[in-house]
Amino acid sequence: MITKPGFNDIFMNLATDLAKRSHCVKAQVGAVLTKDTRIISIGYNGPPSGTHNCDEEWPETGCARDSKGSCSLALHAEENAILYATKNGARLEGATLYTTLSPCLPCARLIYSAGVTKVYYKHSYAKYKGLPSDEGVDFLSRFGVDVVLMEDPS
């Protein structure tokens, strides 16, 4: 009997592969939005299309940081996936998001507002940023979004 990978593994593997498309020199993050085992949209962190590429303009340091130490010029992977989906008329109510890094608080607010009801993530944003807790995960959980730390499918 042939063993087939589950959709969770397939979508998280795709998010992991998408992260490799990022031009960020600090962190590479990928995201996949799905609904009923179908892909709605994909995204990875980086600047708005047509602006610049951090790894080309600032290969040593990356772009300027904001007051919290985050990239001041890029969109997060979740933002890119949600923006592309809505730009193209996709309905996100009840969608599932797969992301390689748990959502930051601003992304969590966007995810909740978009109607996403489940989020799978591979790594902790809090651990990456040295924060005491995953504020985005806490926010989503508080307001009824199912958030799951997914074991590395590789």
UniProtKB/TrEMBL annotation:
<dbReference type="InterPro" id="IPR002125">
    <property type="entry name" value="CMP_dCMP_dom"/>
</dbReference>
<feature type="domain" description="CMP/dCMP-type deaminase">
    <location>
        <begin position="6"/>
        <end position="146"/>
    </location>
</feature>
<keyword id="KW-0378">Hydrolase</keyword>
<dbReference type="GO" id="GO:0004132">
    <property type="term" value="F:dCMP deaminase activity"/>
</dbReference>
<dbReference type="Pfam" id="PF00383">
    <property type="entry name" value="dCMP_cyt_deam_1"/>
</dbReference>
<dbReference type="InterPro" id="IPR035105">
    <property type="entry name" value="Deoxycytidylate_deaminase_dom"/>
</dbReference>
<dbReference type="GO" id="GO:0008270">
    <property type="term" value="F:zinc ion binding"/>
</dbReference>
<keyword id="KW-0862">Zinc</keyword>
<dbReference type="GO" id="GO:0005737">
    <property type="term" value="C:cytoplasm"/>
</dbReference>
<dbReference type="InterPro" id="IPR016193">
    <property type="entry name" value="Cytidine_deaminase-like"/>
</dbReference>
<keyword id="KW-0479">Metal-binding</keyword>
<comment type="similarity">
    <text>Belongs to the cytidine and deoxycytidylate deaminase family.</text>
</comment>
<dbReference type="InterPro" id="IPR016192">
    <property type="entry name" value="APOBEC/CMP_deaminase_Zn-bd"/>
</dbReference>
<protein>
    <submittedName>
        <fullName>dCMP deaminase</fullName>
    </submittedName>
</protein>
<dbReference type="InterPro" id="IPR015517">
    <property type="entry name" value="dCMP_deaminase-rel"/>
</dbReference>
